[in-house]
Amino acid sequence: MTQPLDEFGDVFSALADPNRRTVLDRLAVAGEGTATTIAAELPISRQAVVKHLARLDRAKLVQARRRGREVRYSVQPGRLAATAQGIEAIAAGWDRTLVALKRVAEDANSSGG
Known about the structure:
The protein is mainly alpha-helical. A hairpin with a 2-residue loop joins strand 1 and strand 2. It is built from 5 helices and 2 strands, in the order ααααββα. It has one domain: Orthogonal Bundle (Arc Repressor Mutant, subunit A), CATH 1.10.10.10. A two-stranded antiparallel sheet has the order 1-2.
């Protein structure tokens, strides 16, 4: 069973920011990274990257793991996959509704109504 769309609001909110999408993309390519390594590749400060990573972590799009003094982040693709499944289920529901509506409209036109 898929989850309702409102359960994915935190994902949509996290992905709404282009900087967070860039951070997520960099992590996806690198496999994992720290705020320092990600900030070195972007035109934003390390502190801004830390805030973006925290937001992505709250949305369960990344996972933080402490290794000594470092915090390493990696992408959690399951959350994105679950969100995509939820959107697909909603789209399929709308498709069914629109097909049914089209049939009703065509039946009304063919019967002279």
